[in-house]
């Protein structure tokens, strides 16, 4: 299945969201480097959004 390219403004917004999540939780991006290297938002937009939602859920208080 071919990957779907995310439009640049949306990719930038998702990268900014990822940066904000890491900053908010005091996480060091180097700890995520292996994952980020392989999943640097080159997949489809839904997958990127879903992964960021999952990170926020795991780190959040709303269980």
In short:
The protein has about 60 residues and is mainly alpha-helical. The protein has helices spanning about 10-25, 35-40, 45-60. Helix 1 runs parallel beside helix 3 (about 45-60).
Task: Give a description of the structure.
- The longest helix is centred in the N-terminal third of the chain and has 17 residues, at 8-24.
- The chain has one domain (8-59).
- The protein contains three helices and no strands.
- With 63 residues, the chain is an all-alpha fold.
- Helix 1 (8-24) packs parallel to helix 3.
Any key phrases for this structure?
mainly alpha; globular; 3 helices
Helix content: 55-70%
Largest sheet: none
Low-confidence stretches: none
The number of helical runs is: 3
Number of strands: 0
Mean pLDDT: 71
Provide the domain count. Answer: 1
Quickly give the structural class: mainly alpha
Distance between the termini: 34 Å
Radius of gyration: 12 Å
Beta-strand residue percentage: under 5%
Task: Give the topology string: H per helix, E per strand.
Answer: HHH
The backbone outline, from C-alpha atoms, is globular
């Amino acid at each position: 299945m071919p990957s779907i390219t995310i439009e640049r403004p949306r990719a930038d917004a998702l990268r900014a969201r990822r940066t904000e999540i890491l900053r908010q939780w005091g996480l060091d991006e180097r700890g995520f480097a292996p994952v980020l290297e392989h999943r640097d938002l080159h997949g489809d937009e839904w997958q990127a959004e879903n992964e960021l939602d999952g990170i926020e859920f795991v780190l959040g208080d709303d269980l």
